[in-house]
Input
Amino acid sequence: MKGEDSKMEETCRCAEDQERLARVGEIIDQFRTLPGALIPVLHEIQDLYGYLPEEALQVVSRELEMPMAEIYGVATFYSFFSLEPKGEHVIHVCMGTACYIKGAQGVLDRLSQELDVPVQGTTADGKFTLEATRCLGACGLAPVMTIGEKVHGRLTPGEIPKILKQMRTPVETH
Ligand code: FES
Output
């Protein structure tokens, strides 16, 4: 039975992959006549997958007649593109001046220690990706981090374990 389950799972995943690759083709068609089509195409692909997987970049290379080296050059030049899958929750710790002065490094170090990942790393369970970022525009709340859409301000390293615990605990609905 277990074998059948995993076979079914594989079939589903395969169908999902095919669907997403078909969507990549549509994205390319949408932008291919624009000058500088590569950047918007990469943006859309990243929105679709959460990162830029090689199989999708192969399609871009073929369809836009662009060498893979050139595509990787662009994808690695801009920090908003990622070639690695991200975790379910992406944590951005602001390292802008105001946050830095108010102790952002300590917050970042504590997160790295608690999650057991380096900065830009993703936890083994795929739950969290830890990133350092520029000013998030909330300097009055320094030091600041965001987890997804949620903003956490005036942080101290000591608060980190509690925040992570809350993120790991499923919300009960009654
Ligand atoms: S410096 Fe951190 S929010 Fe502006």
